[in-house]
Design brief:
Layout (H helix, E strand, L loop, with lengths): L3 H8 L2 H12 L2 E2 H8 L3 H13 L3 E3 L9 E4 L1 H13 L1
Antiparallel strand pairs: 1-3, 2-3
Helix pairs in contact: 1-5, 2-4, 3-4
Length: 87
């Protein structure tokens, strides 16, 4: 098992898990994530920032201030697989 703290961090939040699953399929922008998950902008932003901080997702164009694209990182894929096995 990888870092149990990170696995717990993902497993205890439906939003984090949902965004990780979405980004595992294909890279997406924040508006796309908001539309699919039906989350408020503030919730989506906060969740994306949490996942970025833990290095579970990557911003593909951080210099763009308006329309950023996100994808799951290698460690994010590994953690997502472990969380799916547990849940």
């Amino acid at each position: 098992m990888s870092n149990p703290k990170i696995i717990s961090f993902i497993a205890r939040s439906k939003r984090r898990l949902e965004i990780l699953k979405l980004l595992a399929e294909k890279e997406k922008s924040q508006p796309e994530i908001m539309k699919i998950t039906k989350m408020y902008k503030s919730h989506t932003s906060r969740t994306i920032n949490e996942l970025l901080e833990k290095k579970l997702i990557i911003c593909r164009n951080p210099e763009d201030r308006v329309f950023k694209f996100y994808k799951i990182s290698a460690s994010g894929k590994k953690i997502l697989k472990e969380v799916k096995d547990i849940i």
